[in-house]
Amino acid sequence: MHDITIHYSNMLSDKVGKEHGLSLNDLDSLQPVASNIHKLLRSKREKGELPFYDLPYQDVTEILNYAAYIKDRFENFVVLGIGGSALGTIALQTALNNSQYNLLSKSERNGCPRLFVADNIDPVQFAEMLSILDMDKTLFNVVTKSGTTAETMSQFMIVYDRIKKLKGDRWKENIVVTTDKAKGVLRKIAYELGLKSFIVPDGVGGRFSVFTPVGLLPAAVAGIDIKGLLKGAALMDERCREDSIIDNPAYLYASLLYLSDTKKGKKITVMIPYSYALKDISDWFRQLWAESLGKKYSLNGEVVNVGQTPVKALGVTDQHSQIQLYVEGPFDKVVTFLKVEEFKVRMGIPQNPPIPPLERGGKGGFEEISYLCGHSLNELINIERDGTEYALTKNNRPNCTIIFPELNPSTIGQVMYMLEVSTAFAGGLYNINPFDQPGVEEGKRFTIEALKRKTL
Amino acid sequence: MHDITIHYSNMLSDKVGKEHGLSLNDLDSLQPVASNIHKLLRSKREKGELPFYDLPYQDVTEILNYAAYIKDRFENFVVLGIGGSALGTIALQTALNNSQYNLLSKSERNGCPRLFVADNIDPVQFAEMLSILDMDKTLFNVVTKSGTTAETMSQFMIVYDRIKKLKGDRWKENIVVTTDKAKGVLRKIAYELGLKSFIVPDGVGGRFSVFTPVGLLPAAVAGIDIKGLLKGAALMDERCREDSIIDNPAYLYASLLYLSDTKKGKKITVMIPYSYALKDISDWFRQLWAESLGKKYSLNGEVVNVGQTPVKALGVTDQHSQIQLYVEGPFDKVVTFLKVEEFKVRMGIPQNPPIPPLERGGKGGFEEISYLCGHSLNELINIERDGTEYALTKNNRPNCTIIFPELNPSTIGQVMYMLEVSTAFAGGLYNINPFDQPGVEEGKRFTIEALKRKTL
User: Fold this and answer.
1) In terms of residue numbers, what domain contains B162?
2) Closest residue to B452, CB basis, from A82, A120, A371
3) How many domains does chain B have?
4) If 0-12 CB within 10 Å is exposed, 13-18 middle and 19+ buried, where does residue B81 land?
5) Is B67 found in the same domain as B25?
């Protein structure tokens, strides 16, 4: 079995009490609504209105060829992108590459370039990043679906200016663009100047774009097996063709969170991976869930102000930061653990500590840590997770666990595809449009107007 | 003026409406309670029961001498610590050092070692970190107040075992311990084996320990001006000697959050720095606020289950992830911006984009980004913050701003000291003990029992 699975018994009232736990009846009652949403989503998919569903089946030859072509030509690959143009890339990199990737030697990176993701416009941070890069040996991937994103286009113009001063018209060799196939000024620039470019398919929004060149190109450049990733996504697509809440993992997960929010007042959903590699999956999901479901208006135009607040946490680190609040604070949270069964490395704790215990001729006083000796970090991390699950459940805090048999391109593809389908489905449950983001327009207009007014 | 300041007019009802905003009367009514808490805190401080207050006035000569001594001897400095033993160090490093610090050359680091903070026990991540370190040239700082923390002591034993195999009894050269002066097995080991050690003062808990050797030693090793940091903390201490909620910035900030929670139902407090450097101050504060105030029992022994949930965010990045939810979702949040007035580098956006506009003989179509040209990332980041503040306020979402004239050791010392005092004071407002963490004990006992039961 190499499928991810969801364990949700700790969401139920017999584990966490009636006040906070769901009944199987709550799930059953949702099935008719779920079946309707399922029909609607299938019909939209068939009409080509939800193209994110079919991304697992795309041809990635051009991406792989281009990644191979640039491998020896560049030392650094820098993504200029923000939000949905960055979070998927960061999540894939953290999940599937060495945690010290940029500090490895080129041969330890299998010849792949270093990877940077510039997803902010802090002037100091951006200057510091540029100052460590040999510009001639750096390829910049400008990623914006609309082709007009203020932050990304500003970064692009700064980088263009610097490389042009260095190389003249050959600056174009150091830029690759990922944007809409027709719309936006970045596409226009790419077309007029003949820049290498990739396409973000029509109808795929930023937060659903990890399986387009937005996420796949940087992943391939960093040596990640993108075909394996898409195979995992396709596996999950097969499992998501059921309309049954219980059998369809994406619908199950969405239903658990939705019911916890609307029936039990759990306005906060915490995702806590017990694996460093999964840390940024939780950050990627935070955008997906928040921006898709945090909405003022329902599809009927009523003011609803809905949306669970997703919180990213990390086990075991945040046991020493957040668990006190989760166990003893308000009953306003539902917790999702991400658990890895087999880590790819075993890290044993030695049998013999620095001071030998009494019975081996030492001076004693060593009892406080002797229970650790001979075990491994692998055991410790998962037993601590069990302990946290136990403490939450005992204190009537609903929680569920997504289990990964191991971490590999397939299981990462599975979980990301599942969470995308969960989010689309949850849009139906909340009766809102999960694919727009009207609430960020006000701030954008403010910025444009303020800059236009400001004298240079 | 080099003091940080708090702007809070957008917390008030004339800006965000009566349902969500506070009245000046709400603040006035809290003053008698505040004055009592103030008296209690002062009296405890005078009796030496709250030693974190006096840390700004310590002598740091030994720390500075030791940092100078190891500077040329080691290439890497690795903190083994978790929670309060790691978060302050990470916050200081991100705030006051180059964002690419570990990728700089030794001379660019002014001869200081690289800095790693191993604050998790993921076996893969820990193995990957160790594998890039020349162990002989690496100094490990084992940081645990209790001297028994399972995660840290496991890491310590693994590292001890590896260095011992390499260097025999000279393994001790590569370890420096920061722990209690008398209690715990780590102190015993340090004493019996003659390891170099620093002391976490009595009565200073992990999350209040950034101004002890826990935070100061790694900071000094990485070249941070720790005297400047403490001077900033001392400056803030002076400003926190008032009992007036309006004049004492720590009390003001705590009161704003407390009243928003208890009077207006803002169960979530978001801290969003518009500065990459301040990113981990918000993570450090997340532990401080959550673990101190998330409590089941009041001081009278009543079940209260209190505690706001702190959320870390980052501007402008999270505008493309979380702002949709904050602007349109449930009215359950209060937002704190951190704003930097002067960044130490200016990053200008060029006057001339890749395609010249029509009037300069180009093909046009460039209007979508022309408003950016000639401005700077410095302007853009702060105007985007203004835009987000505007959008939140217009949608009746209370928010306040902590303003940093610039980022330097003094202003960082000021804000961290202020937030510690805010947290101690908020403990009084919520009538709970902000200095314990009983809710994490259950999980810890579970872990110990489970490992003891498990056969090797």
Assistant:
1) 54-227
2) A371
3) 2
4) buried
5) no
Query: Do A282 and A374 share a domain, yes or no?
Result: yes
Q: Are residues A300 and A400 in the same domain?
A: yes
The answer on A307 and A253 residing in a single domain is: yes
> Which of the listed residues B210, B227, B244 is the one where a domain comes to its end?
B227
For residue B254, is it within any domain?
yes
pLDDT tens for chain A, 456 residues: list them: 589 999 999 999 999 999 999 999 999 999 999 999 999 999 999 999 999 999 999 999 999 999 999 999 999 999 999 999 999 999 999 999 999 999 999 999 999 999 999 999 999 999 999 999 999 999 999 999 999 999 999 999 999 999 999 999 999 999 999 999 999 999 999 998 999 999 999 999 999 999 999 999 999 999 999 999 999 999 999 999 999 999 999 999 999 999 999 999 999 999 999 999 999 999 999 999 999 999 999 999 999 999 999 999 999 999 999 999 999 999 999 999 999 999 999 999 999 888 765 555 555 667 788 899 999 999 999 999 999 999 999 999 999 999 999 999 999 999 999 999 999 999 999 999 999 999 988 888 899 999 988 876
- If asked whether residues A385 and A248 sit together in one domain, one would say yes
Beta-carbon contacts of A455 under 8 Å, excluding residues fewer than 6 positions away, are none
B17 touches chain A (CB under 8 A): no
Query: pTM, whole model, 2 decimals?
Result: 0.97
* Helix, strand, coil fractions of chain B, as percent rounded to 5: 55, 15, 30
Which residue in B294, B329, B371 is closest to A307 by CB distance? Answer: B329
| Chain B contact for A370 (CB, 8 A cutoff) | no
Q: How far is B242 from chain A (nearest CA, A)?
A: 30
Is B400 in contact with B3 (CB distance < 8 Å)?
A: no
Structure tokens that stand for B228 in this block: 């400047």
Clarify whether residues B422 and B312 are in a common domain.
yes
Q: For chain A, what's the residue count?
A: 456
Number of Cβ atoms within 10 Å of the Cβ of A179: 29
CATH number of residue A158's parent domain:
3.40.50.10490
3-state secondary structure B392-403: HHHCCCCEEEEE
Is B291 assigned a catalytic role?
Answer: yes
Do A417 and A341 fall within a single domain? yes
Chain-centroid distance of CA A271 in Å reads 11
User: Could you tell me which chain B residue has the CA closest to the CA of A118?
Assistant: B317
Residue that has been written with the tokens 């990113």 in this structure:
B279
CA pair distance B46, B39, nearest whole angstrom? 11
